[in-house]
Amino acid sequence: MLLQNGSLKLDFVNGIADSGKGILLQIRFTPRSSRRGFLGVENNWLKVAVNAPPDKGAANRELVELISKNLKVPKRDVAILQGSAKRRKLVEIRGISREYFQEKINL
Length: 107
Known about the structure:
Conserved Hypothetical Protein Mth637, Chain: A, 21% helix, 38% strand, disordered N terminus, globular, alpha+beta, 2 helices, two-stranded antiparallel ribbon
C-alpha cells in the first residue's frame, strides 16, 4: 500500500489487494438480483449479487452476511469502507489472506 496525495494506491489483482489487517475487495455490486453470490471477475472488479433491494441498507447487510458466511469470518470483520450507497464498493475483510479468500470462493 502506498499513500499518494492523501489517498491510498493499492495493488489490486482480480479485485483483491492486501491490507495491513487482511484483504480489500473491489466489488461491482448488483442488488435485487435473481442470483446470489460471487459471480466472477470483470475489469479487476469482483462481481457480487444479492437478492435484497438497495433500500435502507438491506442489500449492504446481505452483502456483509454473504461474505461472512462464505468465508466463515465474523460479520464484525467485514466492513464496507467506500461506496455504501453505490454499486462499486471497497470492502475490507480483516484476519484473512488473499490465498484463503481465493480457496474459499473459487473464482
